[in-house]
Design brief:
Layout: E1 12-18, E2 23-40, E3 47-48, E4 62-68, H1 77-87, E5 92-94, E6 97-99, E7 104-106, H2 121-129, E8 148-149, E9 159-160, E10 162-170, E11 173-181, E12 186-189, E13 194-197, H3 210-215, E14 231-236, H4 242-259, E15 260-261, E16 271-276, H5 286-307
Parallel strand pairs: 4-7, 14-16
Antiparallel strand pairs: 1-2, 2-4, 2-16, 3-7, 5-6, 8-9, 10-11, 11-14, 12-13, 12-15
Helix pairs in contact: 1-2, 4-5
């Protein structure tokens, strides 16, 4: 599956990559406002403004979604996104002010390099400055710069993750996905059932196959919560309510479950946001839309892993 989340009218995407570590952040801008939902499945999430996206709560639209490395420190980058939007007059009118709404989620990439280097407000602002409507770069950029995967047997047997995107059109409505793959588990190609990247054998030369190793009795040491997390956004140009956007975000997690094994673990904070720009002016069959959201999410995960480039001690899929 090809395409990109920027095929959805009304969106711009920007990366900021800090090559010193590496780490980074990625912003999906919707300055005109978009309806949003979220679904959190991992047991160790790091998020901001997710409660606001409940259909029970008042604010109806958001102005950006931020995906960031840096663990909980990376939530600081959302402040830079807010500043960028505020300088341009975007936000929800609250009394005398306009307040930009920027939900965010982070992944743990502090395994790689100097962990005192993390995305901050300046990084979030820079990602906004870099945003455009062209297909965003994939692999070792933005929130995927320091991403790793296959960590169930330790970081020494892990591989490089990354960020990827894909889109599809059904009945004149476009749905796209953007995902930073930093999973604890392996990435599996559903077409073959075989690992694409993940935990490696003790000598590091080949893919282990985590579930097969477990069945054979090779079990991991106790896991430290919060050492992983896959985060992403699905977006559409359909007209959705907040409740419908939340349902689409929920169904999009099926796309992770098809290609990450295991997923939603105690050490992952897996979070997917959904955005509806309404640019098509058309309502959607939510079940159909959610099913395609899962499909493009799977495609985006596979593209992220295949676009990744290895780092010292962390080979990428193409290296094996």
């Amino acid at each position: 599956m090809t395409g990109a989340i920027t095929d959805v009218a009304g969106l711009a995407v920007g990366h900021h990559t800090d090559t010193r570590r590496p780490t980074g952040c990625t912003v999906v801008l919707t300055p005109q406002g978009a309806v949003a939902g979220v679904d959190v499945r991992g047991a160790a999430p790091g998020t901001r403004e997710t409660e606001l996206l409940s259909p029970l709560n008042a604010v109806e639209t958001v102005h950006a979604i931020l995906l960031s490395g840096g663990s909980a420190f990376g939530l600081d980058a959302a402040g830079g996104v807010m500043r960028w939007l505020d300088e341009r007059g975007h936000g929800v009118v609250v009394g005398p002010a306009r307040v930009p709404i920027v939900p965010a989620a982070i992944l743990f990439d502090l395994w790689v390099g100097d962990n005192t280097i993390r995305p901050d407000a300046a990084a979030g602002y820079a990602a906004c400055e870099a945003a455009g409507t062209a297909a965003p770069a994939e692999g070792n950029v933005g929130a995927g710069a320091g991403a790793t995967l296959g960590k169930l047997f330790g970081i020494g047997r892990a591989m490089k993750g990354g960020i990827g995107t894909a889109s599809a059109t059904v009945d004149g409505i476009t749905v796209g996905a953007l995902v930073a793959v930093n999973a604890m588990g392996d990435v599996i190609d559903p077409a073959t059932g075989r690992p694409v990247a993940g935990a490696r054998t003790p000598d590091g030369s080949a893919l282990l196959g985590t579930m097969a190793a477990w069945r054979a009795g090779d079990l991991p040491a106790p896991l430290q919560p919060g050492g992983a997390t896959t985060i992403g956004v699905v977006a559409t140009d359909a007209v959705l309510s907040k409740a419908q956007a939340n349902k689409v975000a929920q169904m999009a997690h099926d796309g992770l479950a098809r290609c990450i094994d295991p997923v939603h673990t105690m050490a992952d904070g897996d979070t997917i946001f959904a955005l509806a720009t309404g640019a098509s002016g058309r309502s959607a069959h939510v079940t159909v839309l959610g099913a395609f959201a899962a499909q493009v999410m799977t495609a985006a995960v596979l593209r992220a892993v295949r676009a990744a480039r290895g780092l010292p001690g962390l080979p990428a899929a193409n290296d094996l």
